[in-house]
Structure formats: structure tokens, C-alpha cells
Amino acid sequence: MLNEIGEILFNEREIDMKVRELAAALTEDYRDKNPVFVGILKGSFVFMADLVRRIETDCEVAFMSVSSYGSGVESSGRITIRKDLEMDVEGRHIVFVEDIIDSGMTLAYLMRYVANRNAATVKVCSFLDKPSRRKIKLVPDYRGYEIPDAFVVGYGLDYNEKYRNLPYVGILKPEAYLNR
Ligand code: PRP
User: Fold this and answer.
1) Is 129 in the pocket of ligand 1 (CB under 6 A)?
2) What residues are labeled active site?
3) 42: CATH
4) How many domains does the chain have?
5) Quick check: CB of 101 below 6 Å from ligand 1?
6) pTM (two decimals)
7) What residues contact 172, with CB distance under 8 A and at least 6 apart?
8) How does pLDDT run across 79-124, given as a tens digit for each residue?
């Protein structure tokens, strides 16, 4: 029901511009380091696909899937790994790729997790960032757009698994998720 989208926050052109900027910075910083871009499923899959196609140095791609148990949209900080990395990260340069950082709990956990497995470096690249929702200190090393505390969907982000396929980032109308 596309009429649940109230406003387009970032259109395809704005997304493409930002992806190119981030990829250029990453290419510069990771040249000849063969970094591993680790996408956190599911939300990151669209951004990940766009981002790595703009990276102009050797790199690898991996995915993890985690679940956090909590009430509704709030993440509780109790995180379980559903799909682990299938590689040895020791000595590797890891860049987590996220669609959005909210409380920061998911990434804080994952960064600890790979640091404990002796990764050489661990950084974060997030397309969107909602710093107003942070429960833990976490600043992404590479950030696309900082956004206000609105319910955003599209470009990988969902509401009840819908809208991940939208080519833009939109704000969901409050009536779509309130009083349900
Ligand atoms: C979203 C997003 C991050 C996490 C951020 O995933 O993709 O992984 O929440 O929240 P946090 O900073 O509060 O930990 P979600 O759990 O909605 O799963 P999905 O990616 O499968 O939609």
C-alpha cells in the first residue's frame, strides 16, 4: 500500500550520490587491504549491492544475520547470531555495512564479536543514522545521512517485511503503524 508513504526523504538520485561518496572514501581508505564488507541482513542488502559496485579496489563480501529480542520495534540488546560468518576474520579488515543504526546495540555487539576473533580493524558504514535513538555510544565511521526519529522504509528498510523493494527512502505515515 504505497499510500502509506507520507514523504520521500531521499530519492534515487540522492541515494546514488551518497553511495558514490561513501564508496570513494572506502576505496581510498582500504586500497590494497582486501577488506571484507559484512552486510547485516536483511536491511543492508540493497545498500550493500550498490556500495560494493562502486568500490574500486579488491574486496570480499560476507553476510551475517542476527535477531534481537525485545518488544516491537525496540531492540532489547539481547542479540543472537542466526547466520554467522563463514570465514576466519583474524588479521582481516572488517567493514560492517548497515542500512540504519538506531539504538546501536546490534553493531556494538557485532563489533565486539569480530574484535574478539582478532580482526585487524573493525569499522562501520551505515547508510542512515538516527543518533537521537542511541542507547550506547556508537558513531559510524562512514555515514550516509543522519535522519530524525521518523519511521523510514524503502531501500532495504521494512515495515512488517514490506517496502524493502522501494528504490527510495520514504517516511511511513504514523496512521500506518499506530493503533494496529
Ligand atoms: C535493523 C537494522 C539494523 C538494526 C539497527 O534491523 O538493519 O540491523 O535494526 O538497530 P539497533 O541500532 O537498534 O540495533 P532489523 O532488526 O529491523 O532487521 P532487518 O534488517 O531484517 O529488517
Assistant:
1) no
2) 102
3) 3.40.50.2020
4) 1
5) yes
6) 0.95
7) 4, 5, 6, 150, 151, 152, 153, 159, 163
8) 999 999 999 999 999 999 999 999 999 999 999 999 999 999 999 9
